[in-house]
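A protein record in our archive is deliberately plain, so that people and models can read it alike. The record that follows is passed on verbatim for readers who wish to inspect the format.
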Amino acid sequence: MTENEVHPWKAYIPPNSKTLIVGTFPPTKRNWSYDFFYPNKQNLFWTVISAINKSALEYFSGEEAVNERIGILENLKLGVTDMGLEINRLNGNSLDENLSPIEYMDILKILNEHPTINKLIFTSSSGPASAARWFVNYLKTRNILHRFASGPKPLRSILQLEHRSVELVVLYSPSRRAANRISLEKLIEMYEHEIRGTV
C-alpha cells in the first residue's frame, strides 16, 4: 500500500544563514515527537547539532522542543530543509528506500531567496533514495547536469550559479541505521567542521 504525502514544513532559514542542511523527507507521523524537522528522537541529527552548539537538549516533545531547536539553528546561522516536496510512501515506512519523490523542493529558488547561503550539506547519498541523489535528479529538471564523485565522505563539489558558486558537501546520515558506519563522535566532528567553517 502506498500513499502520497506533502512536506509539512517550509524550509527554516534564519537571517544571514551561510549553510543549509538538506535531508530527504520527514518520517511517518506516528514517529514524530514534535512538529519540526527531524522529529524522530531515534535520529541523531539534533544530538549532533546541539553538540556543535555546545548546548544540551532539554526538551524532546511539543512546542518547547521546536522552540529549542529553532534557537539552535538561529545561533548557528544554519538553515534546514528537505529534497522531497511531495512523495509516495510505501507501507507507511520511514526508510528512504520506501520513498519515491513526486515533486522536489525548489532548492534553486531557496538559494535565490537567501543569497548568503554558500554551502549545502546533504545528509545522505547511499542508493537512489537519498538527499544527494534527489538533488542531482532535481537539477536535471532544471537542465543542470551534476554528479558527485564516489569515495569516502565528505564528498565535495561546486554548483556554479549565475551570480555565485555554492559548495556542495555530502556527509554521513545522522540516522541510527547509519551509526554502525561512523561513531557519534566522528559524526559530530564531521558536521562541526562543515558548519563551524562557515559560521
About this structure: DSSP finds five helices and eight strands in the chain. Residues 25 and 64 are 22 Å apart (CA to CA). The mean pLDDT is 91.
